[in-house]
Structure of Troponin I, fast skeletal muscle:
Amino acid sequence: MTEKKMSSSRRSHLKSLMLSIAKDLLEEEEKEQVIEKRRYMSENCPPVSMPRTMQELQELCREVHHQIDKADEERYDLEMKVGKSNKEIDDLKIKVQDVMGKFKKPVLKKVRMSADAMLKALLGSKHTVNLDLRANLKQVKKEVKEEDKELRDVGDWRKNIEDKSGMDGRKKMFEAEA
């Protein structure tokens, strides 16, 4: 049961016929769209008659403003409906992924970033503050206490231990305390 292959000339002839039919259909569709647009415009947008007095002109402006407000309300309502439906679609997609259990966690790469670079990435061009933490630290002068001076003046600790070793050292410790 071998399939019969079409010759290249027949294939190109059929292709050209299909393209010509598609071209005719597209032209007809464009004509229908133009006719539909004209019909819609004639129904919804009557021809404007230019008023001759100031009062008629003001009345025309009021009507136009009223129509604009109506169109804005409809647009806003439609935007809200689309936003709600998009959110519902996203929620349902997440539920489907949870049920299917085929959610893959993306592998995250380690990126070394400074705090400034991270804030610039998150906030964009809004971030101009430099995060130099050392600049904000309080400067403290170190006061030298008398006890610290005495500890430093003691000198070499080895001499101190040698002096206190043995009975002589114990005797000196008792004499110093008394």
Remarks:
- Helices lie at 8-44, 54-100, 115-123, 146-153, 157-164, 166-177.
- The two ends are 122 Å apart (CA to CA).
